[in-house]
């Protein structure tokens, strides 16, 4: 195991007999657990648990609750198992993103005093923890951006910029201090990339960090979306660089992901683009994005991916594709969940189905 566990938690997992870590789902009292029969008896097989978006959100909630209550062994074990198994949801998202999201939400919403107490309690409970230093690096970069408000330097007060720089320096130190064990986690690499981009590290060093990260975790989406942020015009880049990066990322992941990364990355870029329509302002091609979405939903036939495809098809005024994808999802699915597509759900459905 990468991180220490508490005896009680280990016993909970052993209770499931031959179930694997991915199947056991010991971390939540889920109704699916009722499908397990005769725990540990020879010849029994546990029912498979579907790791979909709901399970991802459940894991996020469990981690946030465990941080609040000081159940750090739960957080560490979940991180450990998700990192080791590289478990992904039916939509293609890695389950370990639930840990990343939970940290981000927790550090964004608590004040400095509460955050200090969290780390004091964590160190007291698990002094040899390898995850805690990674979480600390995450905390410093998150609270740095919280102080800055996510704005570019010219739109931020000088005092906020000073706090941002001070906390990013602490984040950089925490990243370096946790490097030996942290490199085993994609979250550490993700934080390292944020720090590199946010502190203006030389491009060669930034790219070296990215290459190291994706060599270990080649399909972990946040690594790509973070690196691409610093190629956007608002951060000194341009859309030619963005498109080159997208195509290189598709080539890197093609063996297991086909062309799906093209849609994933451009759907990530779209809400970050302001002003003109991103389909005309960037280098994206709708035919290429459509083909990529088709590959994506073939590999990961999750309702969310189909709804996202429908939303972008509406944006591109591709009526046939929009109708096909909308017919495959719940009619109440909120297409507004994809802000980059800039569509209203009701208007999209009228466009797709109203032929009068």
Descriptive account of the structure:
The N and C termini lie far apart (61 Å). The chain is mainly alpha-helical. The protein is 63% helix and 0% strand. It has 19 helices and no strands. The N terminus is likely disordered. α13 runs antiparallel to α14 and α16 runs antiparallel to α17. The chain has a domain of 110 residues. The protein is globular and about 65 Å long.
Chart the SSEs and their pairings.
Layout: H1 7-14, H2 21-24, H3 53-69, H4 72-85, H5 97-109, H6 112-125, H7 131-148, H8 158-177, H9 179-182, H10 186-198, H11 203-216, H12 221-229, H13 239-257, H14 260-269, H15 278-281, H16 286-299, H17 303-315, H18 319-326, H19 345-353
Shape: globular
Beta-strand content: under 5%
Q: What does the average pLDDT come to?
A: 87
Distance between the termini: 61 Å
Please give the largest β-sheet. none
Helicity range of the residues?
55-70%
Alpha-beta classification: mainly alpha
Cα-based radius of gyration, to the nearest Å: 22 Å
Poorly predicted tracts of residues: 1-23, 30-45
Output the number of helix runs: 19
Question: Strand tally, please?
Answer: 0
State the order of secondary-structure elements, H for helix, E for strand.
HHHHHHHHHHHHHHHHHHH
